Amino acid sequence: MIYNLTKEMKYEIGSVVISKEQIQLKVAELANAFEEYYKDELPILMPVLTGSFIFAADFVRNLKSYPAIRFIKCSSYGSNTISSGQVVVEGLRDIDICCKRVLVMEDIIDTGYTFAALANELKKHNPKELKTMALFDKPSRRKINFIADFIGFTVPDEFLVGYGLDYNEQYRNLPQVHNLREVE
Ligand code: IMP
Ligand code: MG
């Protein structure tokens, strides 16, 4: 989803908002919180493509336990200025989550529509427990009430790129998070 950005303008990466070191520390903290919470029974770890692929890869390598890892893909359709709340989940058909613990991992929560719709969809498959983790959270932009169970950073109301976050599918591979600036 894109906001405050127009197709007519050109953008380039701006200043660093969250450094590589800050991210690595936070990912390790989240992994510790995971180990503590799931010490009795591991969940199926369910990262949401595409944005969470880098976070998930770093996160799982900080774990001492061995949860099953199953990626799903989530697309929301609507105008290109705001996500719609209508979410199509791909990849769920061959994953049996009935009576199992599930932890969904997202890159960022913005309006909250994607995560809330995804949670509704997953609940139809009767997981034993459903928890959510997001590395970045923008509570100031929330359109519906949604709070993730595990949150990395609360970030300002800016469009961010890097560490999995994209603008037009670019910049996901930046090791730190930047904002965008207009090219004059
Ligand atoms: P929501 O449905 O509005 O919560 O949006 C969630 C999705 O929007 C995320 O999974 C991202 O793909 C995308 N998104 C939200 N904010 C940003 C941002 O600042 N940069 C890049 N993608 C974003
Ligand atoms: Mg995404």
Tell me about this structure:
This protein is of the alpha/beta class. It has helices at 20-37, 53-60, 113-123, and strands at 11-18, 44-49, 72-77, 86-90, 101-109, 129-137, 150-154, 160-161, 177-182. It starts with 10 loop residues before the first strand and ends with a strand. The strands form 2 sheets. It has a 6-stranded mixed β-sheet. The protein has a 3-stranded antiparallel β-sheet with strand order 1-9-8. Helix 3 links the parallel strand 5 (101-109) and strand 6 (129-137). It binds inosinic acid (IMP) and magnesium ion. Magnesium ion binds at residues 51, 107.
Blueprint of the fold:
Layout: E1 11-18, H1 20-37, E2 44-49, H2 53-60, E3 72-77, E4 86-90, E5 101-109, H3 113-123, E6 129-137, E7 150-154, E8 160-161, E9 177-182
Parallel strand pairs: 2-3, 2-5, 5-6, 6-7
Antiparallel strand pairs: 1-9, 3-4, 8-9
Helix pairs in contact: 1-2
Inosinic acid binds at residues 1, 51, 76, 83, 106-115, 159-160, 165-166.
Number of helices: 3
Encode the helix/strand succession as letters: EHEHEEEHEEEE
Query: What strand line-up does the widest sheet have?
Result: 4-3-2-5-6-7
Low-confidence runs (pLDDT<50, min 5 residues)?
A: none
Overall structural class, as computed from helix and strand content, comes to: alpha/beta
Strand content: 25-35%
Distance between the termini: 23 Å
- SS elements, strand count: 9
Helix content: 10-25%
Bound small molecules, which ones?
inosinic acid, magnesium ion
What Rg do the Cα atoms give?
16 Å
Average pLDDT number: 91
The general outline is globular
Largest sheet: number of strands, sense, barrel closure: 6 strands, mixed
